[in-house]
Design brief:
alpha/beta; Rossmann fold; 2 domains; 11 strands; 41% helix; 20% strand
């Protein structure tokens, strides 16, 4: 056998020895917990309470196979078909970007900024996995939330996640770069627009990690070098008409273009524009208010 014993604890040590050069200890603990809980149908509490439980030979072989796939560069979220985000479980496939911790920070910024005691109309544009919109709907039960994306595959996955997390949201298939994409939205009807749109110029491909380039959807990542703010411009222009007075616009952003984006928001007529840093100290979020 490739482990000294088939206990949960011993198997975790094996996974740590295999992935230790590529992942931190906390990342390995998270990955291993997700593998075991997915395989055995356990909750987080089951995992904590059963460290000396023994895995079957079939379970051990599954853990080894998944570990080897992770070592080859395949994202474990795609292997398992799900991931955790903001305390919820989301389905995950190569049709959508893998939800990231900095996006959790954006969700928290929104929750800190809105009045959750009143009914709110929110739209998550370029919603991908649905992690932002579904998380907001889960934490703002009085809100009406719409998710839009150009990818039907992404929307189907987001629908499954919304159902799994027992939230009611609406889904629209929109290419927001088309002029008629916002026609279904009434004038001055939304309290919040939020988006984590494609924002990486194609020229920056050379700086990206291979596992991202080889596995995650380029449609959700890249924009043309000639206009890296194209999505922000289209969303911002329409947000001016569709948001209520004093309504909020939130973006996840490319730190390299943060100042250009602030200028764009000023030009479009937004006020109270604020750049916010993530936990790594980089400008990754922007908040603006309709005038």
């Amino acid at each position: 056998m490739f482990v000294q014993s088939n206990t949960i604890r011993a198997t975790q040590s094996y996974v740590k020895s295999m992935l230790g050069e590529s992942f931190s200890e906390s990342e390995i603990r998270k990955i291993f917990k997700l593998i075991v809980c997915k395989r055995l149908g356990w909750t987080d509490s089951d995992f904590i309470l059963n460290q000396e439980s023994r895995l079957s030979e079939s379970d051990l072989l599954s853990v080894r196979s998944i570990t080897k796939r992770i070592l080859s560069g395949e994202p474990f979220q795609y292997i398992l078909g799900e991931t955790e985000f903001f305390g919820l479980t989301f389905f995950c496939s190569p049709a959508v970007l893998i939800p990231r911790p900095e996006t959790e920070e954006l969700v928290q910024v929104i929750l800190n900024s809105v009045d959750n005691s009143t009914h709110l109309n929110l739209a998550d544009l370029c919603s991908g996995s649905g992690c932002i919109g579904v998380s907001l709907a889960s934490n703002l039960p009085q809100a009406s939330v719409i998710l839009t994306d150009v990818s039907t595959e992404a929307l189907e996955l987001a629908k499954k996640s919304a159902s799994l997390n027992k939230v009611k949201v609406e889904f629209l298939c929109h290419d927001i770069l088309k002029n008629d994409a916002f026609n279904e939205f009434d004038i001055n009807s939304f309290d919040v627009f939020v988006s984590n749109p494609p924002y990486i110029p194609l020229v920056d491909k050379v700086q990206m990690k291979s596992h991202v380039l080889e596995h995650e959807p380029h449609l959700a990542l890249f924009v043309e070098d000639t206009d890296p703010l194209v999505f922000y411009r289209m969303i911002g222009k329409n947000a001016r008409r569709k948001l209520k007075a004093n309504g909020h616009l939130f973006f996840e952003i490319n730190p390299d273009h943060s100042e250009d984006l602030v200028r764009l928001m000023h030009e479009l007529g937004f006020v109270n524009i604020e750049l916010m840093k993530d936990l790594q100290g980089r400008y990754r979020m922007l908040k603006a208010q309709n005038s």
